[in-house]
Design brief:
Length: 583
Amino acid sequence: MKNKQSPQHRRRRLRLTVGVPLAAVVASVLTYGTVFGTFGDDATPKASAAAAPVPADAKAAVAAMQPGWNLGNSLDAVPDETAWGQPRTTKALLDKVRAQGFNSIRVPVTWSDHQGAAPNYTIDPAYIKRVKQVVDWAIDDGLYVILDVHHDSWQWTKAMSTDHDKVLSRFNSTWTQISKAFKNEPAKLVFESINEPQFDNADADRKADLLNELNTSFHKVVRGSGGNNKSRLLMLPTEGCTPDQALMNNLATKIKSLRDPRLIATVHYYGYFPFSVNLAGSTRFDATAQGDLDKAFKRMHDTFVAKDIPVVLGEDGLLGDDHGPGGVERGEMLKYFEALGHTARTNKVTTVLWDNGSLFDRSRGQWKDAGLFRQIKSSWTTRSATAASDNVFVPKSGPVKVRTLTLNLNGATFKALKQGTTKLVNGKDYTLSGNRLTLKAATLARLVGDRSEGVNATLQAEFSRGVPWRIQVISHGTPVQSAATGAADAFRIPTRFRGDVLATMTAKYADGSNAGPTDWTPYQQFNKAFSPDYGKNFIRLTPAFLDAVKAGSRVTLTFHFWSGAKVTYYVTKSGSTVTGTTS
């Protein structure tokens, strides 16, 4: 229910103070202003769900923020809130976000297009009022709110190495105004100094010094602004918010030097890069991708958590979403988020899901892929079993053969295999040997029926815990492509997919060297170099890919499909025209 807390939650709140000396409770109230709300300039109490106590211990407060969600591509959009395709944020939207089970929300804000000129860099009062409106709605819903300086990092703070005094003056002015406007907000409002800070024309040591200067200045400005800012939780980032060991060491040292128990470290994680964007043949959440994730979270834990510095993963997700749907295969995405949730939880890292509108449909108030969110939500509290694939491909012609999937049980126990509400029979319809689930030929023949191309049936493997694993049974033929000629800025390869699904594409010249923008690998990036349109039966080669192709040199493209099929195609660019052939 929106704007309300369950009796169970109210009881948990009461238990927080049981056995705590009265003096400690009073001190917490006086210091953090959270049990009875806070007072504005007119001394009017701000009574709301925000009155839920914020733990005095920063580590406990950060734990209470788990899980979180990003209001991406809204107030951080340039030049205004709706410029990047998202609707204007409403209270109803934030109510729905809260109802999904989130306990915190990160509100990225880009201030630059709403600031005046030097020397004051005055922020438009109407814009501050709008940001405050969104913040207050979220706090009234009982959410912790993280407020930052967002795309300003690449718009103007990156010039700090060559325009030091001007950048620092603007940064300080920006945070002075934000601090003043929000100083009486409840303790559930958290300030983050700057998103993904970057610096041009500087080596590693100089970048570290510049970031330390920004973080130190941010801390001084906020703490000196009075009100609740004297003890507000503050988040400090690494350079680029990257969880690199050297960068995290620098941040840990800086946080310790500030001698402030109300500081939080923040980094971002979007997975092993080639997997995150489907590049270099990294189509699966394999041992390499899993290892990258495990190592990143261990670094976060050992550098921060183990040294009593709480850490917030301010953004998590997959970068492929920025370039369009389908870049990372759905089952592999499910495995990634399942592992991320588990690994973050065991390393005591609070996660804030990045959502630029690709996950939660803000106009309709619902998840675009409800199954994906179920997996993400489940990972907050438990593990789920997965499998080597979420698809079983059956050829359109020829005898139907058994298919075996390896289950990744993750500590769970297999319980049942179902088609809708119908439970399949072990021994008759399938067999289970250890973690190997085998679908019998007769069962598959029944499920595919006349073998019309595409998904013929959907099964669900159920386990002792977590969410079920969906298995699609797909009939397919070998994809067929045909010759085409078109403009380099709009070239499309006619493709009958025949039920199959594209996994990746390689590009090579006749001499065997790699073609395309990522010339260090033959495997090009999904959606950035090529993208399929299953409804319109074509594969688009992007201008970015074709611009990088040598004129007059024939390029061999090999399309790899999830069924295992491979299809070869040839393209040659001549001026602004591209010719494609099948031989």
